[in-house]
Design goal:
By secondary structure, the protein is α+β, with helices and mostly antiparallel strands. Helix 1 packs across helix 2.
């Protein structure tokens, strides 16, 4: 193995995304040959990398023991229940999504759904895929079903679709699309993921969210996947997802 940046190595080995790797390095949770890792450092084959107290081990092929292979690519569609968190932080003692899925290989969530929300979330061991999906400028569509505490009016829909200034975040949401499906129920399609965005948008107009479920991320739908279960993304879905990502004008090249 030629020299490779440590954050890319952790990403390639399915530990986390590059951004998450940088954070772990800054927090002092990564060591190389027993010494604390530093931002931007490179490693070479044979060095001992430990992340979060566990050694990062690459697989080797039997026919060529000197050649390191990356883990098999995994992408799961998970139906997250309410009450499950998408972080492994000790701050919240609730079950986290990794524990719920209990996949035999190490996988981690792509983005998050807050504790009180449910529905579709991806889990993967592909750090670069996480980076490509999460880049804010991509404008990738995510669709949600929302239940609120008051009747939905045309004025409410018009203001929501136009973009909402969120004082707490000092940000204005991008224009979005909505479709009313009941007196107090609507679908909303977003192309960004601000913290508790839909809840904050509704609260700006005096509405409170009583139920929120994500049913689609780009081309992949939740469908009839039961709450608390997961499935592997199909080859056809994966190919279409890659095609969507390849059309992203902000896409970075290899490296």
């Amino acid at each position: 193995m030629e020299e490779i940046r440590l954050n890319k190595y952790l990403s390639d080995m399915g530990i986390c995304s590059r951004r998450q790797a940088d954070r772990l390095i800054l927090e002092g949770k990564v060591t190389v040959d027993g010494e604390p890792a530093v931002m931007g450092m490179k490693i070479r084959e044979g060095q001992r990398v430990v992340c979060g107290g566990q050694m990062v081990a690459a697989e080797k092929r039997e026919r060529d023991p000197g050649k390191i292979t990356r883990p098999e690519k995994v992408l799961l569609a998970v139906n997250k229940p309410k009450g499950v968190v998408c972080t492994t932080s000790d701050k919240d003692r609730a079950m986290n999504i990794v524990e719920l899925v209990n996949y035999p290989e190490r996988v981690y969530p792509v983005g998050r759904l807050d504790k009180d929300s449910e529905g579709l979330i991806f889990m993967t061991n592909q750090g670069e895929l996480v980076n490509r999906i999460m880049r804010g400028a991509n404008g990738h569509e995510k669709e949600y079903v929302v239940q609120v505490d008051r009747p939905v009016t045309k004025e409410f829909v018009r203001k929501m679709e136009a973009g909402v200034y969120l004082k707490e975040l000092d940000a204005t949401t991008r224009p979005c699309r909505m479709r009313v499906t009941g007196t107090r129920r609507f679908h909303i399609i977003l192309t960004q993921g601000l913290n508790r965005q839909i809840r904050r948008m509704c609260e700006a107009f005096g509405y409170r969210v009583r139920g929120l479920r994500r049913i689609r991320i780009m081309n992949i739908w939740l469908g009839d996947l039961k709450t608390g279960t997961w499935r592997k993304v199909t080859a056809e879905e994966y190919q279409e997802l890659m095609s969507i990502l390849d059309q992203d004008p902000t896409r970075e090249g290899p490296g």
